[in-house]
Amino acid sequence: MLHDLLFALSGYPGDIFKETTSGKVEVAAGIPNLSPNETSALNYLLHLSTRYIFFKKFISCNTSAITLPGQEVSSDGLKRGCYLKAFCSGLEHVLTPYRECLLNIEKEILKDLHLSLLFVQQETDNYHYLFDALYDVITTIKSRKAHGCQILEALARASVCGNEFVRDSILAITQRCHVVMYNQLSSWLLHGILIDRHLEFFIEETFEISRTNDTNEDEFEETSIVQQKDKFQLRLSFLPSYIAPRVANVICFVGTSLHLFESDGKNHTFGSTSCKTVKKKSSDLQSILQGKDTEFVADLNALKQAKEFINQDFEICIDKIRSVVARELWELCVEHAQLVSNLYMLKDFYLLGRGELFLVFLDEAGPILKNPPSRVTQHDVQQAFLRSAAKIQMEDEKPFDLFSLTITQKQANRSTSFVSVDKMDTGWACLGMDFKVTWPLHTVFKPAVLEKYNHLFKFLLRVKRTQAALQRIWLTQMEARQGKDNSEDYPDSDDATTEMLQWKCRRDMQYFVDNLQYYLQADVLESHFTRLLEKIRNTSEKQRDFEAITTAHDNFLNALLAQCFVLSNTVCSNLIEILDICHQFCELMTASPLLHSKEHIPQQVQELWKLFSNKAVVFFQVLTRVCTHQGNPHVAQLTLRLDYNRYFSS
Predict the structure, then answer these.
(1) 18 pLDDT exceeds 60?
(2) 289 or 356, which is more confident?
(3) CA distances from 434 to 343, 359, 567 (A)
(4) CA-to-CA distance for 550 and 556, rounded, in angstroms?
(5) Under DSSP, is residue 527 helix (H, G, I), strand (E, B) or coil?
(6) What φ, ψ does residue 49 adopt, rounded to 5°?
(7) DSSP code string of 460-516
(8) Residue among 198, 207, 93, 209 nearest 151 (CA)
(9) What gap in Å lies between CA 373 and CA 423, rounded to an integer?
(10) Peptide bond into 13 cis (omega under 30)
(11) Contact 582, 509 (CB under 8 A)
(12) pLDDT value for 99
C-alpha cells in the first residue's frame, strides 16, 4: 500500500487512492483492514497529492507557447505572458525537492520493509505548509486575474511568513519572475527600448497627438498634419508595492529620455548650424550613458542573481543610472541645444516680448480677424504676420522659421481647464501660435507645455489688443481737440459735455488696462522669467540635472498661468468682461464719426462707463475675496496696481 501511496503522492492516483470529481484525492471506500485512524492519516497525506495534481495542471495550462491569435488567455482564464511562464517555471523548480523526497522515501522503504506510514508523514511534513502557501498564491492570481508584474505583488505578500522553508521557496519563485523584470529593465534603462509584448510591465506606451502645419501652395490653405509621438507613463496597477513610486518615476524618466534621444535624434533634420552641432554631439556620444552601460549591466545582473530583492541596492542602482542620464541631458539641452536662447524666443513670441511686432500685427490683422474665420484666414494672417516683421525689419531673423500663426476651430466637446478669452464668433478666438521644436528640446517643450504657452499668448494678446485700441482712441481724441483749438467757432456746450464724458470714460479704461498690462509684464512675466534663467545659469557642475530644468520650467509656466488668472474662472471671466466693455467703447468711438445720427452716442457712452465702473467694483470685490480666502500675494499686487491711491475704490 505504501507504494500505491507514493504513486498517488506523485500525482498518479489508482484504485486504492482515487481522485474525486472535485479534484480531491481520497482513500477509496470499502478498503478492508483499514482502521478509521489509518484512513484519516492517509487522507491527510493525500492532501499533498491533491495539491500536487492542482499544481501540475496549472503549470500545464500556462506554459504552452502562444501560436495563434485568440490564444492569449489560458483555460484558467489568465492572460499568458512572460511573468506567468516564469512563475510556472519557478513553481516547477520548487516542486523538484518534493519529487526527490518521494524518491528517497521509496528507497528507504525498499531497504527497510518495516517502515510505517508515520515515516512517510514525517518526511513530507514540511510540504503541507508549502503546498498550502503555493495554493493560496495561485488562487489569488486566478481570482484577481493577475497579469505581469501583478504576479510579483501576490508573491511578495506570500513571502511574509514565519516558516523559513516556505519563505525560501516563495523567494525562489519570485527570483525567476524577477529575471523577467530585470531583463525588461535592462533594455529600458540602457537602450530606451520597451520590450513588453504581452503588456506586463509597470511602464506602458501611449501616444500623444501633435499637430504641425503644412501649406498647400495651390490653394493657399493650411492643413494640419497629425503626428503620433511615443509617450510612456507608469501603469500603477502593475507596480509592485516594494518599488516606491519615486523610483518607478525615475525608471520611467530614464527610459523615456533614452528612447527619445537615441531614436528621434537619428531621424530628425535640422535647419540651423546650432542644431547640426547638437546632432553631431549626439552621434559622438553614441549613448547618453557615456560608456558606463557595461557597469550598469553588471549592476543589474547582480540584482537579477540575488536570491532576495533588496530595496536599497535596487534604488542605488537606479539612482546611479539616473544621475548619469540627467547630467548628460542637461548638457545636451542647455549647452549644445541652446535652451536659454529658445526660452528667449518663446518669451518674445508667446509672451509678447517683442511688443513692437505685435502692435504692428494688430493693425495688419485687425480687418482679417474681426470676422469669423474662413478657409484662407490662416494664410492671410500668416502673411500679415510676415508683413509686420518686415515693417520693423525682423523678417530675416531666425525665429520666423520656427514660429507661425494658426487658425484652429473651436471644438465644442473638447474639455479644457482654461477660460476662453475671446468671443467665439471672431477670428481672434481661433488664433494661435505654433513653435517648431528642434531636437532635443522636444523633451522640454512637449505638446502639453506648448498648449499652456498658447493660452498665455491668447490672453496676453487680448489685453494688448484692448490697450492698443484705447491708445488709438486717445490719438483720435487728441487730433479732434487740436482741430477744435484751431477752429474759430465757439464749441457747443452739449458737445463739450459729450467730449468730456468720452475723455473721462477713455481715461478710466486706459488707466485700468495700462496698470493691468504693467502687472502682467513687470510683476509676473519678467519676474518669473528672470528667476527661471537664474535657476538654469547658476547651476553648478555637480548639480546639473535635466529633471531640475523641466521642473523649474513647469513651475515657471504654472506660476504664469496662476498669476495671470487664466485658470481662475471667477477672476478671468470678470476680467474678460471688462476688456469686452473697453472694446465696445473703442468700436463706438471709431464708428461715431461715420454715423449720420449721433444723438444716441452720449447715452451709449454713459451706459458703457457705468457698466465699466460697476464691473470694476465687482472685479475688486472678487480680488479681495480671493486674497482673503487664498492669501495669494500676487492678488494683492494686482489690486495695488489697479487701485493705486484708491483710484477706483474712492
Answers:
(1) yes
(2) 356
(3) 15, 19, 21
(4) 10
(5) helix
(6) -65, -40
(7) HHHHHHHHHHHHHHHHHHHHHHHHHHH--SPPPHHHHHHHHHHHHHHHHHHHHHHHH
(8) 198
(9) 12
(10) no
(11) yes
(12) 94
Could you tell me which residues come within 8 angstroms of residue 83 by beta carbon, excluding any fewer than 6 positions away? 147, 148, 149, 151, 152, 177, 180, 181, 200
Residue ranges per domain, the chain?
A: 2-179, 202-337, 343-646
Q: Which pTM value belongs to this model?
A: 0.76
Condensed to tens digits (0 to 9), the pLDDT of residues 482-537 reads 655 555 554 555 556 767 777 888 888 888 889 889 989 988 999 999 999 998 88
Q: Which of 154-163, 295-304, 367-376 has the lowest mean pLDDT?
A: 367-376
**Eight-state DSSP code of residue 412:** T
Chain position carrying cell 481724441 = 477
Model confidence at 418: pLDDT above 80: no
Please state the rounded mean pLDDT for residues 348-371: 86
Instruction: Enter the C-alpha cell of residue 575.
Output: 476680467
SS3 category, 449:
helix
Q: Which residue has the cell 522553508?
A: 165
Pick the range with the lowest mean pLDDT from 154-158, 226-230, 332-336, 387-391.
226-230
Q: All 3 cell numbers of residue 480?
A: 479732434
Long-range contacts of 607-615 (CB under 8 A, 24+ apart): 608/505, 608/581, 608/584, 609/501, 609/504, 609/505, 609/508, 611/581, 612/505, 612/508, 612/509, 612/578, 612/581, 612/582, 612/585, 613/508, 615/574, 615/577, 615/578, 615/581
**C-alpha to C-alpha distance for 349 and 344, rounded to whole angstroms:** 9
> 109 Cβ partners below 8 Å, 6+ apart?
2, 3, 6, 115, 119
Amino acid at 288: I
User: Grid coordinates standing for 368?
Assistant: 482679417
Are the beta carbons of 541 and 325 closer than 8 angstroms? no
**Which are the contacts of 206, defined by CB distance < 8 A and separation ≥ 6?**
231, 232, 233
Q: Are 147 and 81 in contact (CB under 8 A)?
A: yes
Rounded average pLDDT over 632-638: 77
- Find where cell 537664474 sits: 534
The label of the residue with cell 494678446 reads: 461
Read off the amino acid at residue 278.
Answer: V
Whether residue 313 contacts residue 306, with contact meaning beta carbons closer than 8 Å, is answered with yes
Cα distance between residue 340 and residue 336, in whole Å: 10
B/e letters for 345-375, b = 16+ CB within 10 Å, e = fewer, are: bbbbbbbbbbeebbbbbbebbeebbeeebee
Q: What is the mean pLDDT of residues 137-145?
A: 94
Please tell me the predicted confidence (pLDDT) of residue 144. Answer: 93
H or E element, residue 12? none
User: What is the CATH number that goes with domain 343-646?
Assistant: 1.20.120.1900
* Alpha-carbon gap, residue 67 to 402, rounded angstroms: 49
The position carrying cell 556620444 is: 285
Q: How far apart are CA 161 and CA 202, in angstroms?
A: 26
Whether 400 shows a pLDDT value over 70: the answer reads yes
Cell of 128: 503541507
Given the C-alpha cell 493660452, which residue does it identify? 455
